[in-house]
Amino acid sequence: MVYGMSKNNQKNNFLNTVTEMPKAIWDSVFRNNLPHTDLGRSKTSFTNFFLHMHPVKVHKHTLKPWFTMGLGLMSLFLFMILSVTGVLLMFYYVPSTTQAYDRMLDLRGSVAFGVFLRNMHRWSAHGMVAAVFLHMCRVFFTGSYKKPREFNWVLGVGLFLLTLFSSFTGYLLPWDQLAFWAITVGTAIAGYAPVVGEQMRFLLLGDTAVGQEALLRFYVLHVAVLPLVMTGMVAIHFWRIRKDGGLSRPDDADIVITPMPAVAANVMPATIEQPQLNFLSKARYGIQGLVRGPFTKVGNVPDNTVFSYPNLLLAELFVFVLTVAGVVLVSAYFNAPLEEPVNVLHPPNPAKAPWYFLGLQEQVSYSAFWGGVGIPAIEVIILMLVPYIDRGKKGVGKWFAKERLLANTLFLIFVVVNILLIIIGTFFRGQNWEFVSPF
Amino acid sequence: MKMRLSLAIASLAILVVHGFVFYQQFFHKWENYQQSYFDQAKTLAKNDAEKETFAGRSPKIEQIMVTQFGSERVDRCTTCHIASDDPRFLNSPHPYKTHPYSEALGDKQVDGRWERRHKFSDMGCTVCHDGQGRGLTEFYAHGEDEFWNDPLMGYVTQENWRADFKDKLKGKEFMEANCAQCHTEKNFKATPMVNKGRELFQSKNCYGCHRIEGISNGTLGPDLSDVGKKWKIDYLHESIVDPRANSATSFMPKFNLTNEEVKALTIFLKSRRGFNYAETTLDRYRATLKKPSSNSAMVQPTEGNQPTTLNTDTSANYGGQLFTERACAACHKLGELDGGIAPDLSFEGLMKDEQWLVAHFKNPRSLVPDSNMPSFGFPDTEFKALSAYLLTQNKVPPTGNGQEIYQNLCLRCHGEKGDGHGMIATYLDPYPRDFTNAGFMSSKTDERLTASIKNGVPGTSMPSWAKVLNEQQIKDVLTYINQNFTKETRTDIKQRDVPEQNPVAMSPESVTRGESIYLQRCTGCHGRKADGKGPNSLDILPRPRNLLNAEFVTRTNDRRLFESILYGVQGTAMPPWIDYGLSKDDVGDLVNYIRNLNKNKQNLVAANAYVSSH
User: Which pLDDT belongs to residue A237?
Assistant: First the structure.
C-alpha cells in the first residue's frame, strides 16, 4: 500500500516536474510576473539586471520629451548598433593592405547583407558623432553640468573625444583613397603639436607614413581598445547620473507640476548633505550620511515621481525604435562610399579629412600649429573646465535660462563657429583648398 | 497617442526596409540568368544524360581564382556570363552569349570543336577585359562605378568622363592595351594599335620629354612607365588632346594628331603598367641577374635612341636624314614641313653658328633658360650632323615690303594682330612682345627696337635677323608694326638721369643689402627664387622677367637695368621704384644682387658669345 502510494506519488511527482518545468524555468529567469501593482513594478526594476540601472521611480520632469530629446539615449543606442554591426563586419574584414579593399568589394558584392551592414555601421558612426555633440549642447543649454554633476560633464567631454577618435580610426579601414588621404591629413594635423607632435604621429602610424602598420594599429584601436574604454566610461557616466540624483531639473519643478504650497513649504532642499569628515566622533551619522538628499522622502516632498516600469521604459523604447528606424532608412537608400583602391602617388585634390575634422582642417589652412593643435587644445581644456568656471547655481534644468544668458551665448558662439568652419571646409573648399562656391 | 503613432510608423519603416533588404539579398538578377541558362540548356540537350546534368544544378556564384597575373584576381564574371564557354550559345544575347572563338586570338578547331588558346579557367576574364571581377551586379562588375579604375575596356565609359570624347573611348581595339601586358614583343601582330602608338611615341618625339622604362629617358615631362596603371583611358586621352586640362601649368604642346593617332597613343600608354603580367617575380629576379648594369628588369626590348653602331658621319646630308628620322618637324617649321609648335628653322644658317647650335642641342636651357625643347640624348656626332644640316639653311628669303616681311617672318610668334599671340606663342617663355602695347613700344627708342631685331634678344627665342634683313628692311618692318599695331606717333623719348656704370662696387655687403631689398620689394612678381614666377606673376602680362636668365641679364648693361628699376618699364607692371623710395645706391645694390645670382653662369655665356660675332 505504502509502496503503491509512493509509486503513485512518484509518478505524480514526475508528471508534476515535467508539467511545471516550463514555469519553473521561466520563473527562474524572470523573477517577477508582469507587474500589476506598484510593489510589483518596483520589484521588476530591482530584480532585473537590465532594469536595475534604472531608478525604481523617475521624476515626471525627466520624462518630458523636449527636455532631453533623447539625445544621450540615442548616442547609446547608436553605440549598440555600432557594436553589433561592427562585430558582424569583423567576421569578413582583414586588416591587411593587400586584402582590406578586396574584402570591401566582397562585402558589397557577395556577402549576404554586406552592403546593408556596412551602410548601417557607417551612418551610425556619423550619426553618433552628431548625436553625442548635440547631447553635449543639450546639457550645456539646460545648465545640467552644475553641481553635483560637474564631473559627469567632464566624463561626457571625454566620451565625445573618444567617439571622434573611434570614428576616425574606423575611417581608415576600407583602405580606399578616401580613407587613406583623410587619415594622412588627420594624422598630419596631430603632427603639428609642439615637441611631442612627431612622436605622437609615429606612435599612431607605427611608421612615417600611413601603411600596413597604421592599418593594424587603427584596427586594434577601433575594434578593441576604444570600444572597451568607451563601454567602461559609459557605465560610469550612467552610474553617476543616478548617484547625482537623476537628470537635472529646475528647483521649482515640483511646484510647477503640482503646486501644493502647504507641502512645498516643508520641502527639504535637494542639496548635498556635507559628508562629516570626522563622522567617527559624531556617530549619529551612519553610512547613510554620505547619501545625498533627505533620508526619507515619503511625506516630506510632493511625490512627482512615477514608476520607471513602464513609463521610462516606454520612452526609451520610443527613442530606440526611432533611432533604429532612422539608421535603417538611411542605410537602405544611401550607400557608404567606397572610392578607388589606395594610390599612394596620387592624392585627390583637395585631400579632405572626415567631415567632423574639416573644421580643424579649415583652421589648419590658416595656421598649422594654432589651427590644428593650439586652439583645439584650448577649446577642449575650457570645455572640461566649464563646470568649475561657471559656478552659479541658477538656471539649472531649463533650456536657455535667463540667468545663464552669458554662458549660453558664449557656448552658442562656440558651436556656431565650429559648425560654420565645418560647412566651409566641406562645401566651400576646392582644389588646393581654394575657396569655391558649391552652387 | 502621438507617441504610439510615431512608434507604429517607425516600426513599419523598419519592417519595410528589412523586407526590401531581404529581397535584395535573396533575389539576385544573376540567379535568374543562371536559371534561364539551365532551362535553355536542357531544351538544347541532345540526350537524357546531358539533360540530367542540368537537372541537378541550382544557381550559385561561379568564380575563377587567377593567381598568375600580378596580384591575385577573383573573377565572378561567369556567374552571369555562365554560357561563355558553351558553344551552343554563340548567337544568344548577352549575358548568355558564348565568348566568340577567333583564330586571331589563337583559338583552334580540333575535330570540329573549338579549343581556346586563352583558357578561361587559367586566365579569368578581367586580365583581358578589365572590370571588377568581384562585383555581382552589372554596375559594379562592368566598372561603371566612377571609383573603379578599370572599367570594361573599350565597352564601358564612366558617367563622369568628358562628354566631348567619351564616344571615342569605345571600341574593341582598346583591349589591345591588355594584350600587351603579356605580349610585350615590339611588333606583336595582334596588337597593331599598341605598335602604332609605340611608333608615334618615337615619331612625334614624345620620347624627348617623357621617360618610359626600356624605351626612352626624357626628363622634361612626367615618367610614363606605369601610366596605364595610374590613370583611366579618359585621363590619358585628355592629357594628349588637351594637356592643360589636368595641369594648368603644363607646357606640353597640343600636337597635331588625327583621332586615330590619339587613339593609338592612348592604347599604347594604357598598356604601360610598369611590369609584365606574364612574368613571375622569379623571372624578374633572373632578368636582373642577366643584366646587372640595367636597373630595369623588364623583358621588353630596350629601344633607346642611340643607334647600335656608332656613326661618325657628321655631314649635312646625314643631318638632313636625321632631321627627318628624329621628326624635328613634329614641332619645328622648316620649309614646307611645319609642326606648328616650335620656331621656324628655315633661316637657321643665317642666325646661328655651329657652336651655338651644338651647345643648344646638348642643353637648350643653357641658352634659352625657359625653353621647353627637350635635351635629346643623341651622340655628339649626330648633333654635329644636325647642326651642319641646319647651317645649310642659309638662303636669304625674297624681299618684300614691311607687311610681307612681317607676315613671312614675324607672324609665327607675334601673331596676325601683332599682339604677341602667334601660333606658337604659348610654347615660348618669355612670350613674344605685344606690339599693340603702345605704352611699351613708344617708350623705347628706335635704336633699341632696331637692335632687338638685328641682334635678337639674348636668352629668349627672338633670333638675330641681321643676316636675313638689311637696314632698310628692318626699318620697313618697324614702320609697318608701328602703323598697324602700335598706332601711336612716336615722340621724343625723355632722357633719364641714370648712370652708365653701376656706381656701387660689387662686394658681399652690397649683395646682402641688395638681397634684403629684393626680398622686400621684388618677390611678389619676380618670385623668391628670382625666376619670374612670383605669386602675382600669373596675373601679369607681359610676365615678370626671369632674373635667373643669365643670357639675358649678363648681356643687359647697367644703364638699362638702372632705368628699368628706377623709372619702371612703361606698358608693364614694373613700377618706377624711384617713386617708392629707392635711391640710386639701393638700385646699385639690387643690380649687384641680380648680377651675383647669375655670376656662376657667366662662363657659360662667355663660351656662347654669339651676339658679338654677328
Answer: 94
pLDDT digits (tens, 9 = 90+) for B299-313: 333 444 444 455 667
* Smallest Cα distance from B80 to chain A, Å: 13
The answer to whether A35 and A43 are in contact (CB under 8 A) is: yes
* CA B179/CA B175 separation, integer angstroms: 7
Q: Say if strands B337-338 and B333-334 run parallel, antiparallel, or are unpaired.
A: antiparallel
Nearest to residue A172, comparing CAs of A162, A157, A182, A160? A182
- Nearest Cα neighbor of A323 from A54, A71, A114 is A71
Placement of cell 509502496 in the chain: A3
Give the position of cell 564601358.
B156
Name which of A109, A113, A329 is nearest B135 (Cβ-Cβ).
A109
Cα B415 to Cα B58, B251, B423, B426: the distances in Å are 73, 19, 7, 11
| Per-residue pLDDT tens digits for B149-189 | 889 998 999 988 988 888 889 888 899 998 888 888 788 88
Question: What grid cell was written down for B228?
Answer: 596605364
Is domain B508-607 in CATH 3.50.80.10, yes or no? no
Report yes or no on A35 lying in a domain.
no
**Which of A258, A288, A428, A303 lies closest to A358, judged by CA?**
A428
**What's the rounded Cα separation, in Å, for the pair B590 and B565?**
9
Contact B173, A365 (CB under 8 A): no
CB pair distance less than 8 Å for A110 and B136: yes
Choice between B462 and A284, residue whose per-residue pLDDT is larger: B462
Q: What CA–CA distance (Å, rounded) separates A361 from B30?
A: 45
Q: Domain count of chain A?
A: 1
Mean pLDDT of B185-203: 88
Q: Is residue A270 part of a domain?
A: no
Query: How many CB atoms sit inside 10 A of residue B564's CB?
Result: 18
Integer angstrom CA distances of residue B244 from B146, B212, B252: 22, 21, 8
Report chain A residues whose CB lies below 8 A from the CB of B149.
340-341
Return the bridge partners of B405, or none: none
**By CA distance, what is B141's nearest residue in A?**
A109
Number of H helices, E strands in chain B: 29, 8
Count the residues in chain A: 439
- Per-residue model confidence (pLDDT) at position B292: 46
Give the CATH fold of the B402-486 domain.
Cytochrome Bc1 Complex; Chain D, domain 2 (1.10.760)
Q: Beta-carbon neighbour count of residue A407 at 10 Å?
A: 18
Domain boundaries, chain B: 28-141, 181-270, 316-391, 402-486, 508-607
What would the mean pLDDT of B65-69 be, rounded to a whole number?
Answer: 83
What is residue B407's DSSP assignment? Answer: I
In a domain, A220, yes or no: yes
A64 interface with B at CB cutoff 8 Å: no
Of A232 and B535, which is predicted with more confidence? A232
Residue A88 is part of a domain; what is its CATH number? Answer: 1.20.810.10
pLDDT of the residue at B491 = 74
Q: Which of A176, A318, A328 sits opposite B7 (nearest CB)?
A: A318
Q: Do A105 and B132 lie within an 8 Å CB cutoff?
A: yes
CATH code for the part of the protein at B181-270 = 1.10.760.10
What's the mean pLDDT in B83-111? 87
Residue A43 lies in a domain: no
Position B593 scores a pLDDT of 93
The three three-digit cell numbers of residue B548, written as one number: 635667373
Domain B508-607 in the same topology as domain B316-391 = yes
pLDDT of residue A1: 45
Residue type, B408: N
CATH number corresponding to B316-391: 1.10.760.10
Cα A243 to chain centroid, rounded? 18
The residue segments making up the domain with residue A331 are: 65-250+312-433
